[in-house]
Amino acid sequence: MPVSLSPYALRQQIRQGSFTGNTSGYCAGYVQGNLAILPKAFADEFLMFCQLNPKPCPIIGMSANPGEFMLPDLGQDIDIRRDIPRYRIYEDGKLTSEVTDVVEYWQDDMVAFLLGCSFSFEEALIADGLEIRNITEQVNVPMYRTNIACKSAGRFSGTTVVSMRPMKPADAIRAIQICSRFPSVHGAPLHFGDPAAIGISDINHPDFGDAVTINEGEVPVFWACGVTPQVAIESARPPICITHSPGHMLVTDLPNSRLAIL
Amino acid sequence: MPVSLSPYALRQQIRQGSFTGNTSGYCAGYVQGNLAILPKAFADEFLMFCQLNPKPCPIIGMSANPGEFMLPDLGQDIDIRRDIPRYRIYEDGKLTSEVTDVVEYWQDDMVAFLLGCSFSFEEALIADGLEIRNITEQVNVPMYRTNIACKSAGRFSGTTVVSMRPMKPADAIRAIQICSRFPSVHGAPLHFGDPAAIGISDINHPDFGDAVTINEGEVPVFWACGVTPQVAIESARPPICITHSPGHMLVTDLPNSRLAIL
Predict the structure, then answer these.
(1) What is the predicted ipTM?
(2) Cys-Cys with A248: which of A25, A85, A241, B80 at CB 3.0–4.6 Å?
(3) Burial (0-12, 13-18, 19+ Cβ within 10 Å), A17
(4) Domains of chain A
């Protein structure tokens, strides 16, 4: 894997169609973002939804105006229609196709949102010597629907989806300290311990992603997850919505350390 | 209770003998400190013990030189021999008397150490809206011996004593964030959840202090405790050691906020 590839160089490969894969593990040290593109009538309400629910929906960048597909604040020459390896098209809340660029779907009233992703805080945890079980076991992080209500904004509403990483309590305390520095990539965990306390009935059967091993002496630690806005968008049923395909993110020029508040 | 009494005014009452009580709840907003006075031959090793074990033994002030009983860095005109309401005298590791000043015990080779105390972080937690169970139930905080070894320094060694406050997980996460700002008053918790994981066999029978109620949905949260150095001193058996009497602290002129690193 060409770990020394710059974010700009990777985006150029993506734009040219020579890179169409998962971005996990590429451009270590740089922020990767979740994408949501909505027409303006829905975008205004979605912006408020994110503002009201910053832990699951941390905005790290958006179109300066409706129709604007260049995102200079996130990196050099970023064209959000072409610089993500794989996109999903939702019509009336249903997935209808998966494509490698969205130039033909772009409309003059569209607004692109980039939301922080857990890759950034996982990198900070690993740098501190903590183990991330889903990475060790080479599976997707387990994610669960909870009974923690989001604040509603217009047609956007729902409950919080969480990701889970098992840890020994002392490591969980350290993880809470580290993640508190990164509010724009979900911040500190929402909960640890008893899954039922937040409405999770079976920790071994996640609603999204894969189950991971929880060892003796470990507790499950739960973070607000970027799947939360996706679920809210599906229930809002906009006529069209474009997202990244899971794991196929926008790789920005922002160093992860830029997201640290301290 | 004269809550508006300044630390200096309270210390003057203490020095004159008109105040000999518990300092808990007095001079809200100001740092209170645990006292340990040792002869130089033991003080050098104790200083190293504190340096090696900063979570249970956070030094906030000490004599500038052996024999120095004035502590100007901690407040106006502080004479550590007279400005604490009640002292305990230990000889060869055994408690031999309790007195209201220690002028007659003071020796030219003595070194006074002031260690941070949980009052400072409890105040920050309460200010944030969290409940401190031992305060609600008007008892001493429960404290437990653990199997977490301290690093040894000369004759000083032992295991960590912890204090425990039960909380819901979301409140515990907030408490970890707040206490992380206060490393010189024990800092973030050491552990939460299963007491047996740190060698506590019965959470309902603390080794020091009083048991408190742990409600459904709460987990015990454990902080390093200032009783740790007391236990280490007892086992080191110095010929003489002077401490404050529990709850009868040095009230300094330092605002609690001064101890925050962030």
Answers:
(1) 0.83
(2) A85
(3) exposed
(4) 7-118+236-257 (3.40.1640.10), 124-229 (3.30.2040.10)
